Amino acid sequence: MKTETISREKRMNPRDTDGLEPPVPAHRPGILVADDDEGIRYLISTVLTSAGFDVNAASDGQQAWEALLHVHYDLLVTDNEMPRLPGIKLIERIREEGMSLPVIIASGTFPGERVRNDPQLQIAAVLPKPFDIGKLLDSVRQALQACCGDTTSDQGTSRRLDASPTLIR
């Protein structure tokens, strides 16, 4: 089977009618954002969606846990201080179940030494709030690269910042 190489311009123009099949979309990594602060949750979700990721959001650790049981995600970005199930407990539960997805903690409060030194938790990055958006994006890309290979696209820079992430209800 011969594979045809199509230039980027050709792939990006949906009006071309030269008989070529439309390209199969590249895998967009799925990210679950768990934070009880609606503003922070919206900010993180919107930034990640704008960068080209598929993002769902949960308003607490229990809601995130339930989502993880039903949907495959490539990464979890979680706060620590949340009702019903704190971030650290959520991560412990994830690891107890044998889930290997990378986790980034973005929180104003967390047990620092435990988070950094507990190999069982397998934390990809810790971002103390307030954090820089560039640092968040770098941490997300590094975590995904480490676990999944090159899964990010360069489309993110041209995406609108008002893209809407999916809120899990």
Specify the number of helices. 6
What is the rounded Rg? 18 Å
Strand order of the largest sheet: 5-4-3-1-2-6
| Mean pLDDT across every amino acid position | 78
Shape: globular
Which stretches of 5+ consecutive residues score pLDDT under 50?
A: 1-17, 151-169
Helix-strand sequence: HEHEHEHEHEHE
- How many strands, which pairing sense, and closed or not: the largest β-sheet? 6 strands, parallel
Strand portion? 15-25%
Our measurement of the CA-to-CA distance between the termini, rounded to an integer number of angstroms, reads 45 Å
**Structural class of the secondary structure composition?**
alpha/beta
CATH class: Alpha Beta
How many distinct folded domains? 1
DSSP, total strands: 6
CATH superfamily: Response regulator
Quaternary status of these chains? single chain
Helix content: 25-40%
What is the CATH architecture annotation? 3-Layer(aba) Sandwich
Q: What name is given to the CATH topology?
A: Rossmann fold
Q: Could you explain how this protein is built, in words?
A:
- With 169 residues, the protein is an alpha/beta fold.
- The chain is built from six helices and six strands, in the order αβαβαβαβαβαβ.
- It has a single domain, classed as Rossmann fold.
- A six-stranded parallel sheet has the order 5-4-3-1-2-6, sandwiched between helices.
- The radius of gyration is 18 Å and the shape is globular.
- It starts with 7 loop residues before the first helix and ends with a strand.
- The N terminus and C terminus are likely disordered.
